[in-house]
Amino acid sequence: KQEVTQIPAALSVPEGENLVLNCSFTDSAIYNLQWFRQDPGKGLTSLLLIQSSQREQTSGRLNASLDKSSGRSTLYIAASQPGDSATYLCAVLNTGGFKTIFGAGTRLFVKA
Amino acid sequence: DVKVTQSSRYLVKRTGEKVFLECVQDMDHENMFWYRQDPGLGLRLIYFSYDVKMKEKGDIPEGYSVSREKKERFSLILESASTNQTSMYLCASTPFGTGKTQYFGPGTRLLVL
Question: B42: pLDDT confidence band, cut at 50, 70 and 90?
Answer without folding.
Answer: confident
